[in-house]
Amino acid sequence: MISVVVLISGSGSNLRALLEATSAVDYPAHVVAIGADREADGLGHASDFGIPSFDVPYTSFSSREEWGEELAEQLRAWNADLIVLSGLMRLLPESVVDEFGPRIINTHPAYLPEFPGAHGVRDALASGASETGASVIVVDNGVDTGPILAQERVPVLPDDTEASLHERIKPVERRLLIDAVRRVATGELDLTTPA
Ligand code: GAR
User: Fold this and answer.
1) Quick one: pLDDT at residue 169?
2) Which of 17, 32, 113, 145 has most Cβ atoms within 10 angstroms of its Cβ?
3) Does the CB atom of residue 86 touch ligand 1 within 6 A?
4) Strand 82-85 and strand 53-55: pairing?
5) Mean pLDDT, range 156-166, rounded to an integer
């Protein structure tokens, strides 16, 4: 059984799906803490599941590095086997990636390396692409450039809006994330040498 810390910024719907998966007796990972870079609505899922939460507000620090130092303190205290970025809308500073990598994974609402960055869904729609997707990657010091652990295509429909497309991508992300965490936990996925 591996321990996981999940970091979020928003509603945490993918986090909630992971928490539901970890409730199954045969799921080989458990979430020990949930953190956020702001007063994220998704922190409410922590109390629903009786899991501790912490908030390291990005805007309270004068630099990304200083924010990262406080975040690293929290992560050290939890000493988790795996850190999952599930909608964390901040780039981690290099110091954090260097200390905790390659045990940090991220979900992204596009078929990387297509449409990296903070607006993966919007950018896919604006490009006129007929399909996009969802990816789970290992975090490195680039913007969504780390090794790909899992990904799947999602079609873009003619009358899609950013919101409707994102809502169709998210269930795919959830499935990929839950499976990726399971495979890391069982040793099927070795983060030091991703497939
Ligand atoms: C997810 O689609 C996740 O991939 C995305 O934020 C959403 C969070 O949704 N992350 C990024 O775009 C990171 N670049 P949620 O808060 O409902 O789980």
Assistant:
1) 98
2) 17
3) yes
4) unpaired
5) 97
Model-level pTM greater than 0.85?
yes
Distance CA 143, CA 9 (A): 17
Q: Is the CB of 109 under 6 A from ligand 1?
A: yes
Tell how far the Cα of 46 is from the centroid of ligand 1, in angstroms: 17
Distance CA 43, CA 143 (A): 25
Is the CB of 10 inside a 6 Å radius of any atom of ligand 1? yes
How far the first Cα of the chain sits from its last, in Å, is 22
Query: Of all atoms in ligand 1, which is nearest to the CA of residue 121?
Result: 12
CATH code: domain 2-186 is 3.40.50.170
- Determine whether 108 is an active site residue: yes
**Number of Cβ atoms within 10 Å of the Cβ of 2:** 17
Burial (CB count within 10 angstroms: exposed 0-12, middle 13-18, buried 19+), residue 22? buried
Query: Does the pLDDT value for residue 139 go beyond 90?
Result: yes
Residue 170 Cβ contacting ligand 1 at under 6 Å:
yes
Structure tokens at 153: 């295509």
Angstrom distance (rounded) from CA 3 to CA 12: 19
Is the confidence at residue 194, as pLDDT, over 60?
no
From the CA of 108, give the closest atom in ligand 1.
Answer: 4
Given ligand 1 and candidates 173, 177, 178, which is best to mutate, with the most ligand atoms within 8 Å of its CB?
Answer: 173
